[in-house]
């Protein structure tokens, strides 16, 4: 047992028809209103947005990518700066992934073993090893509010045998991550400022794992992060059940549904999200990783999901694709050359209040960086506003109607 302060999840409203719920997630860096969308701040930045703008847009929590930050500038450098919050001047909560997804999606660059995963840096080809313990160490150095366990995410479609193997490995890794966090948590909550007292300068064990030691100076029991387990099992209900049950035994502070949005049909994705969410405890936050479109947010919430992240609003914006209340708008399209309407006539964001489609199209066609910046601003506003409306409908007890109304739109 440690005396560190875990995150706290409060449910404020539950829909009577669907599985949707609204709540508050208390974290070391503030309270998050759920359901929540987390913009992706890959390398310590949401591309094109300043932190001032993100705050003004109402971003409550950012996702940081462990893989990218580990390689550049390096987690030690960020720890030295006092953690990722101070390094990037972001006072609100941060969730970090384990790095595993990036490593394993760089197929030719990664190799999965029982101990962890070997990979080559996409930057310089150098060789690295990520174990369940190591990824916890790196995330502790980053000082995020919510850390994710290393898991094995397999492609779709995958054989039953492959999925079963990934579930078993993910469970063993989750146990190791949990043990690592418990060990460090004890040190941090103890008053021993020198940690284990190890004088080994490198702090590296033969298996490549960093020792938890003086390296946690920037953490206190009040800022010690939570750890979420990740349920795997593809679209197989029985495997999802096995995975969830094994993780529940380990008692995580929150649970993620992983291994979705990897190419499976939408209906299977939604079904899997639903039956997986039903396996998870009501009083813990549920996070659907890497999904999705604005419709996916609504459908995910309806199935009992509380947290979402996706690169789509930001990545698509840089490719001149905007999400609007009337569907996607491809800003490079010639038909907008003389279009004086705002990007989305029913949007209240700073971009839609000021600029025309005609001007935005020009920026993209001319390769001006302002195009990507403005489209990113709008898309993030659209996602956050969608989530705010979903949450409000839940608090007013009108989610089911809201859900039907939005789904009925052409
Ligand atoms: Zn807008």
User: Which sheet architecture does the biggest sheet show?
Assistant: 9 strands, parallel
E-strand count = 17
Bound molecules: zinc ion
**Rounded to an integer, what's the Rg over CA atoms?**
21 Å
Distance between the termini: 53 Å
Number of helices: 15
Low-confidence stretches: 191-205, 208-212
Mean pLDDT equals: 92
Report the structural category: alpha/beta
Shape: globular
Oligomer designation: single chain
State the share of residues found in helices, binned by percent. 40-55%
Kindly report the spatial arrangement of strands forming the biggest sheet.
4-15-14-13-12-11-7-6-5
Strand content: 15-25%
Provide key terms for this protein.
alpha/beta; 15 helices; 40% helix; binds zinc ion
Question: What report would you give on this structure?
Answer:
The chain has 15 helices and 17 strands. With 410 residues, the protein is of the alpha/beta class. A hairpin with a 6-residue loop joins strand 1 (8-14) and strand 2 (21-27). The model is unreliable at 191-205 and 208-212 (pLDDT under 50). It binds zinc ion (ZN). Zinc ion (ZN) binds at residues 343-344, 347, 349, 351-352, 378, 381. Zinc ion (ZN) is lined by residues 343-344, 347, 349, 351-352, 378, 381.
In short:
The protein has 410 residues and is of the alpha/beta class.
Write the layout of secondary structure elements.
Blueprint: E1 8-14, E2 21-27, E3 30-34, E4 36-38, E5 40-41, H1 51-57, E6 62-64, H2 66-71, H3 75-80, H4 84-88, E7 94-96, H5 100-105, E8 110-112, E9 117-120, E10 127-130, H6 132-142, E11 146-148, H7 160-189, E12 226-231, H8 237-250, E13 254-257, H9 266-279, E14 286-288, H10 294-302, E15 307-309, H11 312-318, E16 321-324, E17 327-330, H12 350-354, H13 357-365, H14 369-395, H15 399-407
Parallel strand pairs: 4-15, 5-6, 6-7, 7-11, 11-12, 12-13, 13-14, 14-15
Antiparallel strand pairs: 1-2, 2-3, 8-9, 9-10, 16-17
Bound molecules: zinc ion.
